[in-house]
Amino acid sequence: MTTQERPPTEGPPIGSDRVPSLVLVHTGHGKGKSTAAFGTMLRAVSRGWKVAVVQFLKSGNWKVGEEKVGRSLGVDWWALGDGFTWDSDNMSETEAVAREAWSFTRRLIAQGNHRMVVLDEVTYPLNWGWIDESEMVEVLRSRPSHVTVILTGRDAPDSLIEAADTVTEMVKVKHAFDRGIRARRGIDY
Amino acid sequence: MTTQERPPTEGPPIGSDRVPSLVLVHTGHGKGKSTAAFGTMLRAVSRGWKVAVVQFLKSGNWKVGEEKVGRSLGVDWWALGDGFTWDSDNMSETEAVAREAWSFTRRLIAQGNHRMVVLDEVTYPLNWGWIDESEMVEVLRSRPSHVTVILTGRDAPDSLIEAADTVTEMVKVKHAFDRGIRARRGIDY
Fold first, then answer.
1. Does pLDDT of B62 surpass 80?
2. What is the mean pLDDT of residues B33-41?
3. ipTM
4. Do residues A79 and A59 lie in contact, with contact meaning Cβ atoms separated by under 8 Å?
5. Helix A33-46 × helix B65-72 angle, to 10°
6. Which among B5, B39, B94 is the nearest to A66, CB-wise?
């Protein structure tokens, strides 16, 4: 409880450095990693930036709400995953799909046609060893200087946190799922 | 470091309870509280829900990117704050503006015309004692059953966490601002 704090009469320091782009990571086990990326995407779109989203787990079969609206806003959207791993009949195929998605994404970042690229749920194939960690860090470090990259997913590895400018851990304080409440259309997908 | 984990071959339990709406709180000192609300708003919009956003600190003078895009998607948007408190010439006026915004918002929630209502940065006036905490909890508890409410801001008080279904704490692992990097248009606003 922190009631009766006083409203601040002085603002935070205004930074002095301008950087052309950032690497942002949203990790942790709480809700909000992907949605915060999509909210940031809105800001970029509103400034006229070209934005790309690559989803590493979701497949094209399951059109999520954010994809529909994102596309209507002109965002280039690729759901390149093979779906949930527990639905996979053939894990080496699922792995091959993820490797292909990464190969596509590194070319996309290097091309520099998009000023913001969102790599949604990319930490999962990274942690399963399907994407090489040092290669990903190298792609981020050597990206065109105007390209902001946002990466989401649980358990971001140290090397990725190191390479990022801003990292938020979404910590679950409580979640409706834990009380047996089903995922809700319009809120959870 | 958690590389070489195995991809899960079993999904999480699917909840059995359907609830008509949820109360979500995004708190903590990290980046992503408001953007996650706007990302969730996208999902609601994509399902054809009527969505309202009330901003408790931002004033209408500073049109943020998300407002522009939100409006273009049909979201009803009210930036009802008096701006940053450190820009205030008259704090009792700033307080009155916040009280007015709350009075408006409780009517808006009670009316039930919007299936999702976002109360952005509402914890600040709450923690400054400008909005009564027990009154807010009562408004959430007695809301029309189809209305999902998302509340954002640092230091959400215990009673609000108690009243919520899902609470995420956005924890700052690192932030570009701490290295003196300025807020970036298209990313931070």
1. no
2. 97
3. 0.90
4. yes
5. 90
6. B39
